[in-house]
Design a protein that fits this description.
Oligomer: heterodimer
Order of helices and strands of chain B: HEHHHHEEEEEEEEEEHH
Number of helices of chain B: 7
Shape of chain B: globular
Strand order of the largest sheet of chain B: 1-2-3-4-5-6-9-10-11
Helix content of chain A: 10-25%
Number of strands of chain B: 11
Number of helices of chain A: 5
Structural class of chain A: alpha+beta
Number of domains of chain A: 2
Low-confidence stretches of chain B: 7-18
Structural class of chain B: alpha+beta
Helix content of chain B: 10-25%
Mean pLDDT of chain B: 90
Largest sheet of chain B: 9 strands, mixed, barrel
Order of helices and strands of chain A: HHEHHHEEEEEEEEEEEE
Strand content of chain B: 15-25%
């Protein structure tokens, strides 16, 4: 008897939920609500102040390495020839602060939403600004620049069993999602330097970046940015680095310092 | 029972939020050493502690370290310790998924290819870490939990080892948190070592692999103990005396000695200005001599 009662309760719950979902889906089809903005749909919050922690490549990031020191970088012969033309008089120039190398600098980041579809990254080192655009329909400028043209998209973990694109009912996914990340593709760069000592990348370079946020056991919040530079002109394989940033409570340590125009 | 379980399952599926697929890190992965290459292969020079948030005790220990200690029979057959081996020369590795043959649930990942075949097991079945009095091993005891594109691994019970191959120590009290983050065919590993004995703050670094099918994993799993150096007196332990100033690295690269000694103040952007000033003073001093 108790088993029958239990079965009835569960069946009733299943039927009620199914009806409710069907109604929700029906309403969605009728009203065609516009998709939420990238800001509203953000699965992780990247905004705020972040400080670079330089525990890797310290000798190439904290100081300007000597000419010809391109250890770790998969430069080809053409790249080495260009790197060997650098001299110390060029130290501090803005070519070192282009998008492929900017986040590798000892710097702080200030990340804000410039609009609901443009995520903005400012650095105090070199005083640069990157704009990550989520609107793919926007016509990009043909001009090349130091920070290039960056298209961004949220990457959410795929739904189990497929159907990664839409939520239940076919609508777009919004709100926090564990393990989601931001992917950014940057093109239309002017050439610049991967290192302060003139190790080059060319105007043909394309950067793919992944922004991941996570918490450490001591409750500190971290941002890791994996940067993959593809440059058929000066590199003989993809150049892969990742830079890590610790969250700061405010901008009290923000200390802008400009780079030198070339 | 007959109807109860399936019905309850159906109800739970409808009530629960969306289920996310879990990241799968299994496969063969080729290293990419585009960071700290000289530190990793051939290995950091004596006295190079740049980028390490170490304290005075770690510095003292590292400064007395002599590479010849690895020629002693007691040290000759040591694999790399867990605090270091994923960074090290960067292993080409094979990650296997171990599943229960009946239920097909994930029990563990195993990692092959670590130097000295110190293969790892990352337990995924929710088992607890052992008692703090349990044996410490080179690979430690690791448990993992998947969250979206990340596998978060907690490792305890590691042996006394190093975080860099020039004698910078890691104590047996250290714990390690790792995030294996997969982006398509790229794998980024974030490693955070927390060591209350030797670090001023947790030490974080990131390493990379690319999915590939043609790696040759390190097969040097049999370490033979031989007499490498003849004539040592019994009980001889290669070392530098306490208080040795390991300044060869600083001189070679024209850096202020203090800057090469690590410490948490040296890894924040503010230190760049301090370093610039110190370098200018060094240049001025050279000019006046």
């Amino acid at each position: 008897m108790r088993q029958t009662a239990f079965t009835c309760v569960v069946l009733a719950a299943v039927v009620a939920l199914s009806q409710s979902l069907a109604e929700t889906q029906g309403r969605g089809a009728e009203t065609q609500a516009p998709p939420p903005s990238p800001q509203a749909a953000a699965p992780i919050d990247l905004t705020g102040y972040w400080v670079a922690i330089v525990t890797e490549d310290w000798r190439w990031r904290m100081v300007t390495p000597p000419k010809g020191d391109y250890a770790s970088v998969p430069l080809n012969d053409a790249g080495r020839k260009v790197a060997d033309t650098w001299d110390i008089s060029k130290d501090g120039r803005c070519e070192a602060y282009g998008a492929p190398a900017l986040l590798r600098m000892p710097t702080r980041l200030r990340i804000t939403w410039e609009s609901s579809s443009i995520l903005r990254i400012d650095t105090d080192a070199g005083q640069q600004t990157r704009r990550l655009l989520f609107d793919k329909s926007r016509q990009p400028s043909t001009a090349h620049s130091l920070q290039g043209y960056s298209l961004a998209e949220w990457e959410r973990p795929a739904r189990a069993g497929g159907g990664g694109g839409g939520g239940r009912g076919g609508g777009p996914q919004t709100g926090p999602a564990p393990g989601a990340n931001l992917k950014v593709l940057t093109t239309r760069l002017t050439g610049g330097w991967l290192r302060k000592n003139g190790v080059p990348y060319s105007e043909e370079a394309v950067i793919t970046e992944y922004f991941d946020r996570f918490a450490a056991p001591n409750a500190e919040e971290w941002l890791a940015v994996t940067t993959i530079v593809t440059d058929p002109k000066y590199l003989n394989q993809d150049f892969v680095t990742s830079s890590h940033f610790k969250k700061e409570v405010d901008g009290s340590k923000w200390s802008p310092s400009p780079c030198k125009a070339g | 029972m007959p109807l109860r379980v399936p019905l309850l399952a159906a109800a739970l599926v409808l009530v629960a939020g969306p289920a996310f697929a879990q990241v799968d890190i299994s496969g063969e992965w080729g290293r990419r050493i585009h960071e700290d290459q000289p530190h990793r292969n051939p290995g950091a020079e004596l006295g190079d502690y740049t980028g390490l948030p170490i304290n005075a005790a770690a510095r003292q220990k590292a400064s007395s370290w002599d590479a010849s200690i690895l020629s002693l029979p007691e040290h000759m057959a040591k694999p790399h310790p867990a605090q270091y081996f994923m960074r090290g020369p960067g292993p080409d590795m094979r990650i296997n998924k171990i599943t229960d043959p009946v239920t097909q649930t994930l029990i563990a990942f195993t990692l092959e290819g670590i130097f000295g075949r110190d293969d790892r097991v990352i337990w995924m079945d929710g088992r607890p870490h052992p008692s703090e009095y349990a044996e410490h091993t080179w690979d430690g005891f690791s448990t993992g939990k998947v969250e979206g594109n990340k596998l978060t691994v907690t490792t305890t019970h590691m042996k006394y080892g190093v975080i860099q191959r020039n004698g910078v120590p890691a104590s047996a009290h250290a714990t390690m948190t790792e995030h294996f983050i997969r982006h398509g065919d790229f794998l980024t590993l974030v490693t955070i070592v927390d060591d209350p004995v030797y670090l001023e703050e947790p030490f974080i670094r990131t390493s990379h692999w690319v999915r590939t099918s043609n790696i040759t994993i390190d097969q040097r799993f049999i370490f033979e103990v031989v007499d490498e150096v003849a004539g040592h007196k019994q009980g001889y332990v290669p070392h530098y005396p306490l208080g040795t100033r390991q300044d060869e690295f600083a001189k070679k690269h024209g850096l202020p000695f203090e800057a090469t000694q690590g410490g948490k103040e040296t890894i924040y952007p503010e230190y760049e200005a301090i370093l610039r000033k110190a370098l200018a003073e060094m240049a001025a001093k050279r000019g006046s001599n």
